[in-house]
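REQUEST FORM: STRUCTURE PREDICTION
Request ID: SP-0412
Submitted by: Lab K.M.
Chain count: 1
Length (residues): 654
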Amino acid sequence: MRKIFWLALMFMIFTRNIAFADVKSSYDIIIAGGGMGGTAAAIQATRMGMQVLIVEPTYMLGGQATAAGVATMDDMSGIESGIYREFIGNVKKYYDDLRKSIETCYWKLNTRAFEPSVGNKILSEMTASSDVIYHAEIVSVKNDSQDRYVVIKTPDYTRNVRFKILIDASEYGDVIPLVGARYRAGRDISPEIGDVYIQDLTWTTIIRKYPNGVPEHLRPKEPLPDYERARKNYQDYVAKNGTAFTGKYPIKMPVDVATHNAYRALPDSFTPGSYTGARRDWKKITKTGVNWGNDYPGMYMVNNYYGLTVKILEDRKSRAEIEREALLKTLHFIYYIQNELAEDWSVDEEEYGELPEAAKEMNLSEEWQNIARHFPPIPYARESRRILGKYTLNSKTIHENSLSWRNNHKNLELEDSIAIAGYNLDLHGADNNEDLESELGEKQSSIHADIPQGAFQVPMRVLIPESVDNFLAAEKNLSVSRLASSALRLQPICMMTGQAVGTLASLAIRENLQPRDIHALQVQNVLLDSGVVISLAMYDDVPRENKFFKSVQIATLYRLLDPKRIPNLPQKNINSSKLVIKKGSEFHLGYFGVNDKITRKDFANMLGRAEEITGAKLHIPVENISDLTRLTRGEALDLIVKAMTEQNNSDTTE
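STATUS: Completed
RESULT:
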């Protein structure tokens, strides 16, 4: 009865979309892809009064986090803000009501995980003000001075729908070539895309422990073709007598089953009790994601090369073949865990339920279709086409920016910051010199030399193509190098950059301007009002709830007013829990001095800098210079920031 209710609930969620006949003839914003970036863009834009249509190829929202099954959140920054923070808050409330923890993965606490169906449910609720059409794809775009529309195709219908701003938030960046924008694919720039390589993809799946034994219909009797190669592959990753992870790196491979299952462990809505990622709870885990050892090609050699060809981006036929091979590799794991490891685990019947398109072309037997039906509808694609912007972010800039306020480095923050990320430079394959963009200064040694030493900022510039109008990128398709992309491809930062894109698109429509003509300060003003953190500096007298937090963030980015004591934060390799501490160093948060009195000199310098940024003389409502003596630094800063914002808004409406 429980399962019937849950499947009925999932059906209602999955069919929350509008009927194709009810799609309006035009929208302010059309978003290709309802993944983490696309949903965040839609949520933000509708909150700013825009009419939004999401065109989603699968039957669920959330992209890599749900439809691709990577439901363990990857964020090493520890900074949750904006719509991502709201989303995680909703996830936590859902599991709190069930008295279950979401700190279940990565062998530790302070992590975030959820079941894909739960993530989809919450995102569906959060995007309720947008129109969503599932099983649909944008196949053509007209974008010129005469007309602007997309051609949307479903299995049964095709229709033209007009837009003001089009956003590509697809998993492969498939709309970029449709609008005629130049882009990077692997190391190359269109239209000269050669036989180059990109990161592996993974067809993940969600498995669960069946305490009374795996049901017969979820226990295939015979392996699939090419199983022997897969068996040898998986033996290198997880084995019955493998090593238990003790918290010390490097990990000794292969690991044991408990270690494997604890790595991407998920909360389980349908099993009594709770567990966390702490070692003491590993034996209690009943649900996990399979996303380790099943990268494709991974250790498989294809055409005498260990790597994934860029054809997966450029050629739909090649994409279909590669996706089938990736799905097959993970199907093999189900047989491996049941037969080689003798474990009572199989696919989770509470997740998914629709045979993936790739599986329909594989001539699977009925028993294997029963398994594949509970696989995610799409693979986890780590790398996409990336727009070519007038500015391209590389790994060196990320590294330098991450040093802001660390080990006596001062302000290295980016003025046009719109989000904060926190992840390593993490390429899954195609990581040799010849695979990287030498013209951007990228090389194999950069992977280690440019490791972020903490959280880092994402500049607004990477969202905007070099010349195409009415178009923005909002997923793994930003104007970045391959190495930079490897640190920006994760669920949390995709959601935060998506929120920035929704803001930028809405402001451009509201002001009747192109996105590139909107000043970053306008976007930052809206984001800060929406609870987004965009500065790396931390001050003990300005926590998030402080009334001057917004103005201090702006002051730090634009160097309006120096803090009384600069922060000196610990430096660390963001992929390690060990701090890199110089002998004799003393680490502390900064002190901005928002409650101290402003000096006339500081006020004059701050006003001069603000007028330099806005390019106009600002009107400050202070009757005479003597009135400054009654203002605190925070109050004076508020006046300046308000004047800057008002000036920027008036500039765009003139």
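NOTES: The longest helix spans residues 316-340.
Reviewed by: T.R.
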